[in-house]
From TrEMBL:
PANTHER family on file: CELLULOSE SYNTHASE CATALYTIC SUBUNIT A [UDP-FORMING]
Membrane topology: Multi-pass membrane protein
Pfam family, one: Glyco_trans_2_3
Source species: Arthrobacter parietis
Chain segments carrying region Disordered: 1-23
Segments passing through the bilayer: 43-62, 82-102, 546-569, 652-670, 682-699
Protein name: Glycosyltransferase family 2 protein
């Protein structure tokens, strides 16, 4: 990875970042269920869409067409500027319109959503025997981060719950610190399963005992106090665990308050209801009592394990999350024999039973969960219930687009989290129009659906199955298109049930946002193929779905280049009009309203604008990487977002360019003031002020200087040349020294390598 962390990362989990001025004071999260919007809010949303469209039309007619009509002898340069300016304004207006459209769909969904009652969930899953496998891909994560994620998955109430940590670190590190972190991470699954053993056995025994009493027609006196005592014990167990947790930052606080104590509070609510029933000399019927016992047993029962694909030479070692998931999914439902080969251990289908066989159970559903994400209590229940509701038989993926952790200690984490919360709303609205995209931080997947899109490739004599495409670094987006091509749909569940970490500094944010900007353009041709397939199946495809999907995949490209042109080119003042401001005003007012509804500030619209200016070179780099891959055909390497306690240094280029934007904007102000082009001068001054604020607030002047110096030093540094690896001729070794297993396994591979290196010396092979 080109990014380097400044300082050693904390492994204790107790070191927290220094809280900055202007950081987020609010630590309590938002409501799980979105409040129903008022009629006034819905009506204003419709009005915003109409004003945006009419404003653009009025601008085209009153400014562009009028200027061209009244100046038939205008210079070619002016005509070209008018066309380009209209194109830029049109694309930016289109993105704003898609924001308002998706937001309006979200308002409709929030207005119409009715939460499934707890009793209906208990009844649906009372005698349920399907299974779900939670897959947590992890690479170089802090053990404390992974631990919280695994706990949030293990405490999900679901029958036959299997949680698997897909550990992708190099399995045999030589660095003592890295090895210690790896061993600590490897121990997490067994540690959590061991902690759950005692409550699991207690509540499973309580369920069995009640069912025995029920079967033997034992009088029911005293049954309700027994059940109350079990729920009380479960709540106390969770509360005790919460008290013993070390809280080092806002994410730890969220884990304690929402994951552990949130579940404890829900169990205590059941205690309150049962106590009230007992005081009123009433009781739930026996079937309901069984459901309540079953709930306790399932909350504290989970199978935990760890899988490392890099231990096996027969699996793909491609360095990305998608192939980490694919490697494990391809083994599910089979028993595999570990066979030692010259290049490592390979897995082959087991024909006979061996003690060391690897057996991986199959499951109906998969839950993919990033190692820095947390699930709230009944995530699995509610999403699987949705998949199994009538009419949802062809829904392949459902999720709750993740929200940001509250109480961020840095300004950049707060404003980046604000954009994440805005995206949560937009993704909910896209589902209203049938334009859902899979957002990879968390999702429940119907395994049968991804088996429809699997591709099989033979690599080195082994079949490599690809369920989730890794052609681009936004594998979830491409898989969404693949599923649609095969007749599957996706749905976002309209509640907040998942949270994920936001990069806390500019360096790690650069890695994340550059990856997000890369790949959308490459997937567009697949979208056209999907539309053709759906038309062939005579499916109804609405224009708004197509427009939302195209905007989602390509808006970063045209918005970045459009903003670049607006910042850099001195357009003629005659092309400016107040109508451009009026056209954009509904977008900014709606975003400010959404930010306020998400617990942020209305004024964050200006901070986000400056934030986007600072990220302009990052987004452009991601877009250009897509263009590079389109022309060269070479896959862009997947770069994981660093997640360390200390600051991650940003590449110097992405620090220098924002300063250049500020300098050029100030130059533009001076030039336009001299030429009395007041509209352009005001726009340039606003860009300069907001960009400089963003640099100071989100990067930091001191950190900028450090990153620039590091960039120069890295550029000057020349890595020592590694000694050329000499070929290892097989024939020159004595029989006692020759690696006979490698010779038999690889055959003439070494000879071919020697020939590729230009070694044409003849070798005599003697057989003794």
């Amino acid at each position: 990875m080109p990014e380097s962390a400044v300082g050693a990362s904390s492994t204790s989990g107790t070191v927290s970042r220094r809280r900055q001025w202007g950081s987020e004071k609010r630590s309590e999260p938002l409501s799980i269920v979105h409040p129903a919007p008022s009629r006034r809010k819905v009506a204003l949303g419709r009005l915003a869409i109409v004003v945006t469209i009419l404003g653009w039309v009025a601008y085209v007619v009153s400014t562009i067409l009028r200027e061209l009509a009244e100046n038939p002898s205008a210079s070619f340069r002016f005509q070209l500027e008018a066309v380009f300016y209209l194109v830029v304004v049109t694309f930016l207006t289109f993105s704003a319109l898609m924001y308002l459209l998706a937001r309006q769909g979200a308002l409709y969904r929030f207005r119409d959503h009715r939460r499934v009652p707890r009793g209906e969930l208990d009844r649906h899953f009372a005698r349920y025997d399907e299974s779900i496998t939670v897959l947590v891909p992890s690479y170089a994560e802090e053990p404390e981060v992974v631990r919280a994620t695994l706990w949030s998955a293990a405490l999900q109430e679901f029958p036959n719950l299997r949680v698997t940590l897909l550990l992708d670190d190099p399995p045999f590190p030589t660095d003592p610190g890295v090895l210690a972190r790896l061993e600590a991470t490897r121990a997490l699954a067994a540690e959590i399963e061991g902690r759950l053993l005692e409550p699991s056995m207690r509540f499973t025994s309580a369920l069995s005992a009640y069912q025995e009493r029920l079967a033997s027609d034992t009088p029911a006196s005293g049954e309700l106090p027994r059940l109350i005592a079990e729920y009380e014990a479960a709540a106390v167990w969770l509360e005790t665990m919460a008290e013993n947790e070390t809280v080092g930052d806002h994410v730890d606080e969220f884990f304690v308050d929402l994951v552990l104590m949130g579940l404890a509070r829900e169990l205590r609510l059941t205690v309150l209801a049962l106590t009230a029933a007992d005081a009123q000399h009433a009781a739930p019927d026996p079937d309901r009592m069984v459901e309540l016992y079953v709930r306790l047993a399932r909350i504290f029962t989970a199978s935990m394990n760890t899988f490392e694909r890099k231990l096996y030479a027969s699996l793909s070692h491609e360095a990305n999350k998608a192939m980490n998931l694919n490697a494990y999914i391809s083994l599910m439902g089979g028993r595999w024999h570990k066979e030692k080969a010259a290049n490592g251990v390979v897995l082959r289908p087991a024909t006979e039973h061996h003690v060391d066989d690897l057996e991986i159970p199959d499951s109906t559903y998969l839950l993919t969960l990033d190692a820095d994400s947390l699930l709230l209590r009944d995530y699995c229940l509610r999403l699987v219930h949705l998949l199994e509701s009538p009419g949802n038989e062809r829904v392949a993926v459902t999720q709750t687009p993740y929200s940001s952790f509250r109480g961020a200690p840095t300004r950049i984490e707060r404003v980046a989290g604000a954009t994440t919360d805005i995206q949560h709303i937009l993704h909910q609205g896209m589902t209203y129009y049938g334009a859902t995209f899979w957002v990879g931080a968390n999702a429940v997947i119907r395994k049968r659906a991804i088996e429809d899109i699997v591709e099989v490739e033979s690599v080195g004599g082994f079949d490599i199955k690809t369920y989730i495409q890794d052609r681009t670094v936004i594998e979830d987006t491409e898989s969404s298109v693949d599923l649609g091509t095969h007749g599957w749909t996706l749905v976002n569940y309209p509640e907040r049930l998942s949270y994920s970490a936001t990069p806390p500094d500019f360096g790690s944010l650069v890695v994340q946002r550059r990856r997000w900007a890369n790949g959308g353009l490459l997937i567009l041709p697949k979208l056209w193929n999907q539309m053709r397939e759906r038309k062939h199946r005579r499916e109804r495809i609405l224009a708004r779905e197509i427009l939302l999907r195209v905007n989602y995949m390509a808006s970063i490209a045209w918005a970045s280049f459009g903003l670049l042109f607006l910042l850099g080119y001195p357009y003629d003042s005659r092309l400016l009009s107040p109508l451009v401001f009026i056209t954009a005003l509904p977008y900014f007012l709606a975003m400010g309203s959404d930010l306020r509804d998400c617990g942020h500030r209305f004024s964050d619209i200006f901070r986000i604008y400056g934030f986007n200016i600072v990220l302009l070179p990052v987004n452009l780099a991601g877009v250009l990487k897509s263009v590079q891959q389109a022309f060269t055909g070479e896959k862009i390497p997947f770069v994981r977002t660093p997640k360390v306690k200390d600051r991650t240094a940003a590449p110097a280029l992405y620090v220098v360019v924002p300063f250049l934007i500020v300098a050029y904007s100030l130059f533009t102000v001076w030039r336009d003031v001299v030429s009395e082009n007041w509209g352009n001068a005001a726009f340039a001054l606003l860009n300069a002020l907001l960009a400089f604020y963003a640099i100071r607030a989100y990067i930091g002047l001191k950190n900028s200087a450090v990153d620039m110096v590091l960039g120069v030093l890295n550029w000057l540094h020349v890595a020592p040349r590694e000694p050329r690896q000499q070929p290892s001729p097989v024939i020159d070794k004595a029989p006692e020294e020759a690696d006979w297993e490698a010779i038999l396994y690889h055959g003439d591979r070494r000879l071919n390598r020697d020939m590729r290196q230009g070694n044409d010396r003849r070798r005599r092979i003697s057989v003794r």
